[in-house]
Amino acid sequence: MGIEFVDLFNQWASSYDDTVNGSDPEYKEVFAGYEQMLQELADIAISPVLEFGVGTANLTKKMTDQNKVVIGIEPSDEMRKIALVKCPEAAIYRGDFINFPSLQTPVRSVVSSFAFHHLNDQEKRLALKQYYDKLEADGEVIFIDTLFKDEAYKQQLIQEAEDQGHLNLAQDLREEYYPFLEDLEQMFLQLGYVVSFKQLNKFAWLIHAKKGE
Ligand SMILES: C[S@@+](CC[C@H](N)C(=O)[O-])C[C@H]1O[C@@H](n2cnc3c(N)ncnc32)[C@H](O)[C@@H]1O
To answer: Is 78 in the pocket of ligand 1 (CB under 6 A)?
Structure first.
């Protein structure tokens, strides 16, 4: 479910780290402050951590460097190969946000960076419901991802991308499942989480949801 983009990620794997470090002008602003954003998430994640959409394990590595126990889930074989070399300390399995190997370990944080928007609304809800049931009583979901503050801001971002000639980015902003802040907030609240949002760059937000009473 929600893994229709995997071929694209297999092809992107070998150059992915160059992209997040700013080599592609079109996506430079999307990943502006990438290392600091991931560090901020890594610092607040509580071990044991379950991470989805590990990619090349840049977030994973920051957490294992802090001696946190991390179980990673990644659907792309090519991404996973790079991740296993970069971060042998983590257990990284094939799977996705919804279908992943059953875990014996208790989980206190479910984390993900730049990946949750691959799920449509129905899939997002299904995934967040599973995590609520799986998390320990003091558990948290902590994501970094692109979202839109509102419709006007979405149109502004698309217009700016087009004005800069960033037509792939403009198309992504139109077609991918980036949520509106209010809709995502409602989804978390309806499932019983207490959630807060913090903008990190022009596109990316930190989404921090705690399991309610
Ligand atoms: C933009 S990369 C982000 C990688 C890494 N988390 C980071 O911050 O650099 C998105 C990752 O999500 C993975 N992905 C795509 N669809 C997914 C799904 N349905 N479930 C879990 N991961 C998915 C991709 O294979 C890719 O590795």
So the answer is: no
Candidates 101, 103, 77, 91; CA nearest to 3 is 77
Residue nearest to atom 4 of ligand 1 (CA): 55
112-169, pLDDT tens digit by residue?
A: 999 999 999 999 999 999 999 999 999 999 999 999 999 999 999 999 999 999 999 9
Q: Where are the beta strands (DSSP E) in the chain?
A: 49-52, 70-73, 91-93, 107-113, 135-146, 193-199, 204-211
Average pLDDT estimate for 12-41: 96
Q: Which CATH number fits domain 6-146+179-211: 3.30.70.240, 3.30.1490.20, 3.30.230.70, 3.40.50.150?
A: 3.40.50.150
Supply the DSSP symbol for 29: T
- Is 76 a pocket residue for ligand 1 (Cβ < 6 Å)? yes
Query: What per-residue confidence (pLDDT) applies to 5?
Result: 77
Q: Residue 176, Cβ neighbours under 10 Å: how many?
A: 12
Which residue, 105, 100, 156, 157, is CA-closest to 130?
Answer: 100
Tell me the CA–centroid distance for residue 74 and ligand 1, in Å: 7
